[in-house]
Design brief:
mainly beta, three-stranded antiparallel beta sheet, about 15% helix, elongated
């Protein structure tokens, strides 16, 4: 019986060892390609300031709107008296054929000393001049695309103090 137990144990060990060797003989290998695409960094360059020109205010307040063509319209007691009236313009740069989302803040404040005015209804225009809203998504047909414009509405308060009002609004661009 001792011999039988030894034979069974020895046979089991042989089968286990043979099974381990059999697995290695059935192994397969495959290779998988690895890829990465590095895009040019997105760049946005301001070319011209959004400028509402020179205005007067009769004591009732109102608004002045500048669109992509530099056209302004006024409401209330505001009168446009000329000066430089233009939309803000900027250029985008990135990898050709990639989508870039451009976004602008909803409202901005401009000031002259302690006096302020708000600019709202900020809208982006694509190079074709059509209103495209906020945000816009652009597919770059070339590495650099110019002609994007920014319009908006300046809110002039009743009795607004005279002065040169300045400020900034953030326009951001990122791949999407």
């Amino acid at each position: 019986m001792k011999n039988s137990i030894r034979k069974v144990a020895l046979s089991s060990a042989t089968v286990i060892a043979a099974g381990a060797l059999g697995s290695a003989a059935n192994a397969a290998t495959a290779s998988v390609a690895i890829q990465a695409i590095v895009l040019d960094p997105v760049q946005i360059t301001a070319n011209n300031s959004l400028n509402f020109g020179s205005v007067t205010e009769s004591g009732a307040g109102g608004t002045i709107i500048v669109d992509n063509g530099g056209f302004n319209s006024v409401t209330g007691g505001v009168t446009s008296i000329g000066g430089t009236i233009q939309p803000g313009t900027f250029t985008l740069k990135g990898s050709t054929g990639r989508n870039i989302q451009v976004d602008v803040a909803n409202v901005a404040t401009i000031s002259s000393g302690v006096n302020t005015m708000t600019v709202n209804a900020l809208v982006l225009y694509n190079p074709a001049g059509t209103i495209t809203g906020d945000p816009i998504t652009v597919t770059l047909g070339a590495a650099t695309v110019a002609g994007f414009e920014l319009g908006g509405t300046l809110n002039v308060g009743a009795g607004q103090a005279a002065g040169t009002y300045t400020g900034n609004v953030a326009v951001t661009a990122a791949y999407n």
